[in-house]
Amino acid sequence: MRVFEDQGHRRGTVVKGRLLPVLAVVAALFALWYVAVVPMNIREVLSSAEREGAVVTPSSAVERQQVGRIALVFMNLEHIGPSWSSDRSRLPSPHQVAREIWASTWDEEVNSRRGIVQTGSLSNRSLIHHGIITLSATVVGFLIGAGLGVLLAIGIVHNRAMDMSVMPWAIVSQTIPIVAIAPMIIVVLNAAGVQGLLPKAIISAYLSFFPVVVGMVKGLRTPDAMQLDQMKTWSAGQGAVLWKLRLPASVPYLFASLKIAIAASLVGTIVGELPVQRGGLGARMLAGSYYGNTEQIWAALFAAALMAAVLIWAVGWIERRTMRAMGGQP
Amino acid sequence: MTAAPAAVADSPPSVIEARALDLVFETGDGPVQALRDVNLSIGKGDFVSFIGPSGCGKTTFLRCIAGLEMPTGGTLSVNGMTPDEARRARAYGYVFQAAGLYPWRTIGGNVRLPLEIMGFSRAEQAERVARVLDLVDLAGFEKKYPWQLSGGMQQRASIARALAFDADILLMDEPFGALDEIVRDRLNEELLRLWDRTGKTIGFVTHSIPEAVYLSTRIVVMSPRPGRITDVIESPLPRERPLDIRDTPEFIEIAHRVREGLRAGHVDD
Known about the structure:
The complex is a heterodimer of chains A (330) and B (269).
Chain A: H1 2-51, H2 61-65, H3 69-75, H4 94-110, H5 116-119, H6 127-158, H7 160-175, H8 178-191, H9 197-220, H10 225-233, H11 238-249, H12 251-276, H13 281-290, H14 294-325
Chain B: E1 14-27, E2 30-43, E3 47-51, H1 58-65, E4 73-78, H2 83-88, E5 92-95, H3 107-117, H4 122-135, H5 151-163, E6 169-173, H6 181-198, E7 201-206, H7 209-215, E8 218-223, E9 228-234, H8 249-266
Parallel strand pairs in B: 3-7, 3-8, 5-6, 6-7
Antiparallel strand pairs in B: 1-2, 1-4, 8-9
């Protein structure tokens, strides 16, 4: 029992010991971001200061084109104030992005006339609405991709012809840029009458099956010669070897690849949403870039990052539960 | 070769019969003669040890009996069948050097594994698991996971697993090789008791002279390059063997003869 207590204690200190460095890195990133905002937005800030009658150096926009951004910052230190609050910034400040996230989630749903409080359904302008669209396609695509990956790996391990032929094609499939193939998949499926969630899920599955194949082939092959001989002494068939030995032995490999796969699924879904433009975080990002609304792009980006973190955490949680059910050492 | 140990009444039918057995492995460096002209018959209820330096083919011979290797010449029969047929008829339980328990299964689950594969009913699985765990003194450990047990207990669990489906033959490939001397002594004692109670035919590979002499009714001394049998020693020791039998003159004399046999085999080197 003492061993368990010691480990629990150590785990506690690890969490405590980790918090400070993580916060320090986050703080440093935000500081860097705030600094970067100034040169990124300096031309627009100076132009609007000039319009309001202030004296800026150099005085005309044409002359300012010849000067570097950082030099402009140091020539006009007295005018950089609005950099962090301008409306149409190239790089919005963190607090502007935070305000946009708040406005497009809580504020939109609770206070706006399109929100769930007024209408009973999620507003089509809220990040929650678009997040759910992306999430559902991601999860469906992940399940298709992971299932396909496991089946292909089982085929590769059991069939020599598949062993020789499938892996090269799987590798080739991943060398094709997904942005190039995604619109084709959408168009072809659309012509076949398939619309909505499924085409995006298929693109998402296209990205997520690969890590599962690689991880599972490795995992299914971990049983050593002794374990396979042992199965042979019991006259076990291939099915029994697969169910009782290969699959349980591959579980740690499965979860390692599922974590990569679910992140890839999210990327695939977002790329799939770009050409469709019927909602989703990808559509939000593209709309933001059409209308020069960088705050919206960044808000959608953070929503996607948060979603990826939650999805990977969820896979990790299932992994911990599974390993415990499989008698893992605490 | 045909004489039965004194303790076993009337000449028992032979269970394992090898005649002029040859096995040549084709390797990258050319053929390697793993076994040459091996002749041996093992009677029902015998405890036969195979002893010799590494490369003498003792494990290879055991694997031939189990149908895990195919001999390239001669004949080998197990229970009157070819080794492959005997394997499919579940004629033997095989214990490897490593316990090889699945870490994701409890001790009970590990012992149940061959029973599940062989399609025993659930009730019979439970009954057999309880019985063989009791036989190896692991009753009460059914729900524990392998990592919660010592190496010796894990090996006992693997013996229970080999016994679970009631094969008449038990083949053991250096099962206690990785354990320390004290644990090994105790397991040897338990193995003898188990053999006495179950009446199994046991083939036991070892490289420890005291272990071979203490356990066996017959000791097969082998030597390498090519792997062959150099001596077969019938043990005059009684079936009932307390640990301190190892200090008796008879025991020391047999051990001496085994050592001589091993040394003779080494002259070739």
